[in-house]
Design brief:
It is built from 1 helix and 3 strands; from the N terminus they run E-E-E-H. By secondary structure, it is of the alpha+beta class. Strands 1-2-3 form a 3-stranded antiparallel beta sheet, covered by helices on one side. A hairpin with a 2-residue loop joins strand 2 and strand 3. The protein is elongated and about 75 Å long. It starts with 11 loop residues before the first strand and ends with a helix.
């Protein structure tokens, strides 16, 4: 078990500009008039991509937690390789 509790997340953080549903809005014909930026955290849930709008402050945390997950996964691979080498390459 981990002695230290770390925060872990998977997924990506993306920024989007979007059109609204109003037919008379400038965003419908002018790309520079799109609404946003909206920051999303996206990830796969049951094989489907889902997203959630998040604040800039939360985006920084989410990115850090995603990095934590990647670092932990890399460490797990390293430990597995070391274990295999110690067990079978004696």
């Amino acid at each position: 078990m981990l002695n230290k509790r770390i925060k872990l997340l998977t997924g990506s953080v993306i920024t989007r500009f979007m059109k609204c549903g109003k037919k008379i809005c400038a965003c419908q014909t002018n790309e520079k008039a799109l609404h946003g930026p909206y920051i999303y955290w996206t990830r796969k849930v049951n094989g489907k991509t889902v997203g959630r709008v998040i604040s800039e402050e939360k985006a920084d945390l989410v990115l850090k937690y995603i990095e934590n997950t990647r670092d932990l996964e890399a460490e797990i691979i390293k430990v597995r390789e070391e274990t295999e080498k110690q067990l079978f390459d004696e």
